[in-house]
Write a structure and sequence with these properties.
Elements lengths: L2 H8 L16 H13 L2 H36 L6 E7 L1 E5 L2 E10 L2 E5 L4 E6 L6 E2 L4 E5 L2 H29 L5 H26 L2 E3 L4 E3 L9 E2 L4 E6 L4 E8 L11 E5 L8 E12 L5 E8 L11 E7 L4 E7 L10 E10 L4 E16 L2 E6 L6 E5 L10 E3 L17
């Protein structure tokens, strides 16, 4: 059957000439394609049909992607930006004292571990653990009976030598003895006095005396215990005032002077501060670390600070200035400059609209969660404090200040 006969049989309508070609039926082409497929082997015919189906499928996917890309480009070119929810803060100025933060170690002004110098048996202990004692207080005595006996013998020998020298001196004055006999008597007297002093020193070593006023620690010996030289008896520490030693880099040497105020904190007493002043600066810089040692003296009336603790300190290194301060989270730090987003009001009174506007700023020093702004904004401006990473110039804003980033000049970690 020819195509003309087939067309007359099914009575296909005649399409006008002005119809597009792609709307006109392709019956001859369809018939040739069908005949081509019939002449192919079954396996090749299935492969051709599968390739046609896959081509149509991928063509549809590609066409859909191109359509979506065109729609997105059209949407972006229209200039419409969806609103973004951010937190804001009003810029204000604060008193800003130049500060240097550091970490250091607490040391006693005077501190020593008291120990015995000679062997012996503990005979008497005259203190309790934790006592406050004055300088010169006898804390412990060792058994010294035999040493006292030798001391008395030396005293007698010294008295005899003294009497002999006095007698020889009178005899020499009347020329009854020679100068050599008088010199020998004088030498015997000096030797007896030296032996007496030596024995007295041995007896004194049998007692432990507080070398300075301070606070005693825990007693480490008991009555009747035999101790050897170097045995630690108790520690004696001066707790008020107390030293705070720390290191600073050489760049900060020009900022440090004696009598500058120091505020220290320790983890043992959260929320409490201990004030003092810089009392000494090492006259040399460590060539290995390029740091200089600094010592501050802190007031410690409650004896809360103990030698060996570590703590943090803030050194007030200059006079106070007023700076515009913002949270560090409000700053977008970039290699080409630091920026913040200002909140501008546009629209009408009936339908106001908040718009984000990016501006460059010059930042100064930081303290805690805050950073000083030197140039770029003014007091009273409203800036975005959180959420600026999703903004660009002209983005509409929705303000939600229910959660604000921390803005504390002296933050302390808290457990939640």
């Amino acid at each position: 059957m020819t195509f003309t006969e087939f067309k007359e049989k099914i009575r296909l309508p005649k399409f006008p000439d002005w119809w597009p070609r792609w709307l006109r039926p392709r019956w001859p082409r369809f018939r040739r394609t069908r005949e081509f497929l019939r002449r192919q082997p079954p396996q090749r015919r299935g492969m051709i049909i599968m390739l046609l189906i896959v081509g149509i499928l991928f063509g549809g996917i590609f066409g859909y992607k191109m359509f979506m890309r065109a729609m997105i480009a059209m949407f972006m070119s229209s200039g419409f930006l969806p609103p973004q929810t951010v937190s804001t803060i009003v810029v204000h100025s604060e008193s800003w004292e130049p500060q240097i933060e550091t970490v250091g170690t607490l040391l006693a002004v005077n501190g020593a571990d008291l120990s015995v110098e000679v062997s012996g048996v503990v005979q008497e202990i005259d203190f309790n653990s934790g006592d406050d004692v004055e300088a010169g207080t006898v804390l412990m005595r060792l058994r010294a009976d035999d040493d006292l006996g030798r001391l008395h013998a030396q005293e007698a020998a010294a008295d005899l030598a003294n009497a002999s020298y006095a007698r020889d001196l009178r005899q020499f004055q009347i020329r009854a003895i020679s100068q050599a006999a008088l010199d020998a008597s004088a030498a015997n007297l000096k030797s007896a006095k030296a032996q007496l002093a030596e024995q007295q020193a041995i007896v004194n070593k049998k007692s432990i005396i507080a070398p300075f006023a301070g606070h005693l620690g825990i007693r480490n010996v008991n009555v009747g215990q035999f101790v050897t030289p170097g045995t630690k008896v108790v520690t004696l520490q001066v707790l008020d005032p107390i030293y705070f030693d720390f290191f600073l880099p050489q760049q900060d040497i020009s900022k440090i002077k004696t009598q500058q105020k120091v505020v220290a904190r320790v983890d043992s007493f959260p929320g409490e501060t201990f004030e003092g002043a810089v009392s000494g600066i090492d006259p040399k810089v460590d060539p290995a670390t390029r740091n200089v040692a600094v010592r501050a003296t802190l007031y410690n009336p409650g004896h809360k600070l103990l030698p060996g603790m570590y703590g943090t300190a803030v050194v007030i290194a200059g006079t106070a200035h007023r700076y515009l301060t913002v949270p560090q989270t409000a700053i977008t730090f970039n290699p080409y400059g630091n920026t913040v987003y200002l909140v501008d009001k546009k629209g009408t009174k009936e339908t106001p609209q908040l718009i984000a506007r990016q501006t460059f700023v010059t930042t100064g020093e930081t303290r805690g969660d805050q950073v000083a702004i030197l140039v770029g904004i003014k007091e009273g401006d409203t800036i975005v404090s959180a959420g600026q990473l999703k903004l660009q110039n002209g983005t509409p804003l929705i303000i939600n200040n229910s959660i604000q980033p921390t803005n504390n000049p002296r933050p302390t970690p808290t457990e939640q």
